[in-house]
């Protein structure tokens, strides 16, 4: 069993979001600093393990007042929770490739 390792290239990747605001507008934003990696057996993709970490303080919507609110205790509370993390727990194939 061989293991392939892959790291997200931050120069060619992004962590972006879009949410509806007052049902008439969309607010777009992104996190500027993040990292992610995967490891897996190329012959068995159900072995994939994905880990990601985002610096919560790197959020930007290009609106400083909104960004300050998102970083506050009301939302991300970046002082207490500086990183947003993800760890996969399983992977399953649905349908045929």
Notes on the structure:
- By secondary structure, the chain is mainly beta.
- The chain has a single domain (4-87), classed as Lipocalin, CATH 2.40.128.110.
- It is built from one helix and seven strands, in the order ββββββαβ.
- The protein has one helix spanning 64-71; strands at 4-7, 15-21, 25-31, 34-41, 44-55, 59-60, 83-87.
- The strands form two sheets. It has a four-stranded antiparallel beta sheet with strand order 1-4-5-7, with no helix packed on it.
- The protein is elongated and about 50 Å long.
- It starts with a strand and ends in a 10-residue tail after the last strand.
- The model has no long low-confidence stretch (mean pLDDT 93).
Keyword list:
mainly beta, 97 residues, three-stranded antiparallel sheet
Alpha-carbon distance between the termini?
Answer: 21 Å
CATH superfamily placement: Lipid/polyisoprenoid-binding, YceI-like
The assembly state of the depicted protein chains is single chain
Number of strands: 7
Shape: elongated
Domain Lipid/polyisoprenoid-binding YceI-like: 5-97
Family: Belongs to the UPF0312 family.
Protein name: YceI family protein
């Amino acid at each position: 069993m061989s293991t392939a390792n892959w790291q997200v290239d931050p120069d060619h990747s992004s962590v972006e979001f879009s949410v509806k605001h007052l049902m008439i507008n969309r607010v777009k934003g992104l996190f500027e600093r993040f990292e992610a990696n995967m490891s897996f057996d190329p012959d068995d993709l159900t072995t994939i393990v994905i880990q990601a970490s985002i610096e919560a303080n790197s959020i930007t919507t290009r609106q400083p007042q909104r960004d300050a609110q998102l970083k506050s205790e009301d939302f991300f509370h970046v002082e207490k929770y500086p990183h947003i993390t993800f760890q996969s727990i399983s992977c399953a194939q649905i349908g045929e490739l």
